[in-house]
């Protein structure tokens, strides 16, 4: 049995809305990851089973390694089909906001979602949700939004309606947001849920292979190059990797090629904090990705130094300036956070 994590009143209210609604839009965050797409498609498959007209809309493209997911071809990209997406958003009776806590996380879609007349529900696990929805289901202690979607569907009494395809999507989100169940994954109920998803016929080993072991040769060579340039700061238990636009060009970089790189330095003994700085190819900025193990709060560092935020162990931000400036800011941040970086635990 699962603990009743989501408040009953919120489940009842959403179930009532659903009973009366035909057109439902599901929205997830910019640069969607496995949990954004997994939770959205997990909910989408369920709504389809209820004969609703549901559409998943995300701000921009998602990585190739998620394209095998059942339903991914029907995900609408806002930056390519804005007019059609705006119409769907305006006409939706319910808008489900998944895996983000603030309108700024959906970039150019924010205005349309804010202005939409439909009832809005947030289902998310990031800290400090903004109040922009009628129902806010926010549980930062739950490791993925996909898990919350599973819990919501079950609590509404529809476990039997979850299809194999829906289960594959939910599993993918749970797996990717925990690094293949290697962090944020000590809650034993996760494994109860996995057992339930396996009962739907999913092949979890095959999903792992499709997500993590289908990269291109150039991605692997890029990884080798990035690691050869890595800087380790032993006195701070930290490591830094970076990628300029020029370097991306040399390795035929395509979007998603550096996915997961930021985690690799954490495999060094005694490194508890990793930073990845990547020059963006679209916006004039450096995308900052931060990861930690243990108690080091990378979200605090992201907020104070890189205009960002996120989870304790996985966060990010943006930096407007040169790569050298970004590195200097990081080094200042390391100095400021030195006591926490050296704390045991
Ligand atoms: P990633 O490193 O995978 O891009 O991001 C990891 C996590 O950091 C995301 O799930 C999100 O919670 C947070 N994050 C990433 N970029 C930003 C940002 O620019 N602003 C904020 N507030 N959070 C971010
Ligand atoms: Mn997530």
Task: Give the names of the bound compounds.
Answer: guanosine-5'-monophosphate, manganese (II) ion
Instruction: Describe the strand arrangement of the main beta sheet, using strand numbers.
Output: 3-2-1-4-5-6
User: What is the radius of gyration computed over CA atoms, rounded to a whole number of angstroms?
Assistant: 20 Å
**H-E string:** HEHEEHEHEEHHHHHEEHEEHEEHH
Q: What share of residues are in beta strands?
A: 15-25%
CATH third-level topology of the largest domain: inorganic pyrophosphatase (n-terminal core)
Largest sheet descriptor:
6 strands, parallel
CATH class of the largest domain: Alpha Beta
Helix fraction by DSSP (H/I, runs of at least 4)? 25-40%
User: What is the CATH architecture term of the largest domain?
Assistant: Alpha-Beta Complex
Q: Please tally the β strands and state the result.
A: 12
CATH superfamily of the largest domain: inorganic pyrophosphatase (n-terminal core)
Supply the number of helical segments: 13
Determine the mean pLDDT: 96
Q: Assembly state here?
A: single chain
For the record, the count of structural domains works out to: 2
Tell me the distance between the termini.
32 Å
Instruction: Quickly give the structural class.
Output: alpha/beta
Unreliable runs, pLDDT <50, ≥5 residues?
A: none
State the shape. globular
Pfam family, one: DHH
GO molecular function, one term: nucleic acid binding
Organism: Bacteroides stercorirosoris
Protein name: Phosphoesterase RecJ domain-containing protein
């Amino acid at each position: 049995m699962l603990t009743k994590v989501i408040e009953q009143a919120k489940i009842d209210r959403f179930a009532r809305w659903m009973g009366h609604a035909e057109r439902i839009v599901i929205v997830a965050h910019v640069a969607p990851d496995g949990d954004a797409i997994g939770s959205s498609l997990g909910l989408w498959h369920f709504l389809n089973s209820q004969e609703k007209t549901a559409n998943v809309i995300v701000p921009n493209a998602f990585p190739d390694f998620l394209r095998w997911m059942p339903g991914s071809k029907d995900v609408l990209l806002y930056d390519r089909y804005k007019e059609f997406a705006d119409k769907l958003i305006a006409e939706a009776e319910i808008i489900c906001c998944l895996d983000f806590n603030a309108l700024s996380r959906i970039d150019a879609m924010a205005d349309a979602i804010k202005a939409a007349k439909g009832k809005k529900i947030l289902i998310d696990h990031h800290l400090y949700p903004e109040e922009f929805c009628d129902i806010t289901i926010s549980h930062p202690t739950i490791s993925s939004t996909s898990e919350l979607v599973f819990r919501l569907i079950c609590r509404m009494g529809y476990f039997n309606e979850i299809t194999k395809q829906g289960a594959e999507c939910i599993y993918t989100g749970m797996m990717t947001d925990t690094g293949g169940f290697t962090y944020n994954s000590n809650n034993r109920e996760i494994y109860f849920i996995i057992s339930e998803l396996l009962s739907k016929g999913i092949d979890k080993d095959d999903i792992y292979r499709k997500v993590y072991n289908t990269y291109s040769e150039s991605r692997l060579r890029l990884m080798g190059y990035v690691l050869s340039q890595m800087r380790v700061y032993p006195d701070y238990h930290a490591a830094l990797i970076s990628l300029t636009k020029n370097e991306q060009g040399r390795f035929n970089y395509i979007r998603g090629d550096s996915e997961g790189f930021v985690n690799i330095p954490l495999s060094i003994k005694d490194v508890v904090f990793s930073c990845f700085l990547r020059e963006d190819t679209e916006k004039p900025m450096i995308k900052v990705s931060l990861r930690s193990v243990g108690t080091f709060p990378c979200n605090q560092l992201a907020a104070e130094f890189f205009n960002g935020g996120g989870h304790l162990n996985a966060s990010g931000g943006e930096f407007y300036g040169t790569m050298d400036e970004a590195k200097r800011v990081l080094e200042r941040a390391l100095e400021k956070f030195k006591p926490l970086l050296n704390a045991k635990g």
